[in-house]
């Protein structure tokens, strides 16, 4: 049975780094990134909501295709509570197992990571948007998530935690 692995969390939590390293240890795996999908849709005419909705729809479509090819899927995406049931339905319809992980850390630590990344790429950090996303991600029901605190763990340690949970 194929697995769909959701790496959820705020900006700066390490989703992209973890998804890349995690994929190296799997067989046939497709990695889908919300940020990359939004980047593919960049259009000065589209609102942030339109970009977000389009990126999420693309992720769902690509995940369906990958699972139908017998691949595992890793999704790097901070989700609103309203979008989580779509992934539950995707896994059910595709006869795949869905594993939800929330990568988290303190607001200050994650914001500092985002600021450092933005400095390196010449961007200005939108602190208001960071706080909005942080609150959305941490405000949803996390009962069926494995919560992993990323502040004091390396990417390799986080990948090991996830791998251990998947093998149980």
Write the layout of secondary structure elements.
Elements: E1 3-9, H1 15-24, E2 29-33, H2 34-40, H3 48-68, E3 72-76, H4 84-94, E4 97-104, H5 107-121, H6 127-138, E5 146-149, H7 155-167
Helix pairs in contact: 1-7, 2-3, 3-4
Describe the protein in words:
It is built from seven helices and five strands. It has 168 residues and is of the alpha/beta class. It has one domain: 3-Layer(aba) Sandwich (Rossmann fold), CATH 3.40.50.300. Strands 2-3-1-4-5 form a five-stranded parallel beta sheet, with helices on both faces.
Strand order of the largest sheet: 2-3-1-4-5
Based on secondary structure, the structural category is alpha/beta
In total, how many domains does the architecture comprise?
1
Tell me the radius of gyration: 15 Å
Number of helices: 7
What percent of residues adopt helix (DSSP H or I)? 40-55%
How is the main sheet built? 5 strands, parallel
CATH architecture: 3-Layer(aba) Sandwich
How far the N terminus sits from the C terminus, by CA atoms, comes to 14 Å
Oligomer: single chain
What is the CATH C level class, in words?
A: Alpha Beta
Overall geometric form? globular
Number of strands: 5
Residue stretches low in confidence (pLDDT < 50, at least 5 long) are none
Features:
168 residues, Rossmann fold, alpha/beta, 7 helices, 5 strands, five-stranded parallel sheet, globular
Give the gist of this structure.
The protein is α/β, with parallel strands linked by helices. Helix content is 53%, strand content 17%.
């Amino acid at each position: 049975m194929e697995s769909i692995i959701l790496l959820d969390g705020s900006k700066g939590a390490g989703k992209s780094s973890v998804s890349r390293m995690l994929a190296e240890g799997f067989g046939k795996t497709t990695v889908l990134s919300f940020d990359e999908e939004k980047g593919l849709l960049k259009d000065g005419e589209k609102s942030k909501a339109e970009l977000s909705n389009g990126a999420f729809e693309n992720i769902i479509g690509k995940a369906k295709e990958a699972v139908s090819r017998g691949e595992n899927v890793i999704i790097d995406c901070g989700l609103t509570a309203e979008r989580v049931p779509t992934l539950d339905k995707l896994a059910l319809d595709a006869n795949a197992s869905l594993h939800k992980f929330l990568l988290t850390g303190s607001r200050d630590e994650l914001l500092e990571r985002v600021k450092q990344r933005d400095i390196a790429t010449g961007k200005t950090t939108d602190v208001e948007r960071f706080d909005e996303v942080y609150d959305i991600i941490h405000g949803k029901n996390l009962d069926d998530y494995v919560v992993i605190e990323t502040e004091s763990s390396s990417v390799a340690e986080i990948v090991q935690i996830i791998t251990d949970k998947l093998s149980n």
